[in-house]
Amino acid sequence: MSKLKINDLKKYLKLLDRQQLEKEIISIVKTHSEIQDYYFAKLNPDNEDLLEKYKKIVEKEFNPRSREILRYPVIKKAIKDFSKLTTNQEQVIDIMLFTVDCGIDFTNTFGDIDQKFYHTIASIYDQAVAIIVKHEKDDYIEWCHKLMVSSQDIGWGFGFDMSDIYNEAFGHLEEDRSIT
Questions:
Q1: pTM (2 decimals)?
Q2: How far apart, in whole angstroms, are the C-alpha atoms of residue 158 and residue 172?
Q3: Is the confidence at residue 176, as pLDDT, over 60?
Q4: Distance from CA of residue 141 to its chain's centroid?
Q5: R_g (Cα) of the chain, nearest Å
Q6: How much is the pLDDT for 83?
Q7: What local confidence, expressed as pLDDT, does residue 180 receive?
Q8: 90: exposed, middle or buried (C-beta count within 10 Å: 0-12, 13-18, 19+)?
Q9: Closest CA to 55 of 93, 105, 87, 108
Q10: Please, how many CA atoms are within 13 Å of residue 130, restricted to the half-sphere of its CB?
């Protein structure tokens, strides 16, 4: 299948008057749930409903009753799709740290998983920490610390990875805490 060319789309849209264009957009929104989510996020950037929808997708993947294996692509896609929908960095951080929290709870509940699992969770943690540092969202540092501490007794070097990520980003804060 050939890919739609943006110039062809622009030519088509120029043929439509405002009313026809509105009908076209409404039809697309009614037909495609991801477009509904996009406009919902545009019109309600601080609304928690969309965040909760994507958190439920993540949480479902950590439910062992629903399947035998964790589907990492589903988890990553939920985070990526949500991140594309919103400009609210706090919500992006929230879904990422929520995912890490679910991962740590999962392994503490069901025992040692595998290296791919821990690499995936540590990678999501690393991405969240990078956003926190970049956007100076210091309100999330305590949550990051809690996650790092709760990962310490987990295998495959996971605790070390989490400590390295935390200390590289926030280690200077720990030094400041111990001085005061």
A1: 0.85
A2: 22
A3: no
A4: 17
A5: 20
A6: 94
A7: 42
A8: middle
A9: 93
A10: 6
Q: Which amino acid is at 147?
A: L
- Cβ burial of 85 (10 Å; 0-12, 13-18, 19+) is buried
Q: What's the rounded Cα separation, in Å, for the pair 73 and 120? A: 10
Which is it for the CA torsion 10, 16, 17, 20, positive or negative? negative
Mean pLDDT in the chain?
91
pLDDT tens profile 44-77: 888 899 999 999 999 999 987 755 678 899 999 9
Structure tokens given for 5: 């060319």
End-to-end CA distance of the chain: 64
Spatial separation of the C-alpha atoms in residues 123 and 33, rounded to whole Å: 28
Rounded to an integer, what distance in angstroms lies between the CA atom of residue 125 and that of residue 132? 10
Instruction: Give the CB-side neighbour count of residue 173, counting CA atoms within 13 A.
Output: 11
CB of 152 within 8 A of CB of 108?
A: no
How many helices and strands (H and E) does the chain possess? 9, 0
